[in-house]
Amino acid sequence: MAVLSYSRLKAWFKRQARSQSNLARISVSGLTGLAALLAGRERGPALRDEWRAHLAGENGHDPVTWAKIGEAVGFVQAGLRDRGQDCADAAWRPVDAVLRSRVLSNLFVIIPTGVDTYIVLRHEGTIGVLTSFESIFIVGAMLYGVIKAGRWYRNIEPPEPRARQTKE
Question: Per the structure, how many domains does the chain have?
Answer without folding.
Answer: 2
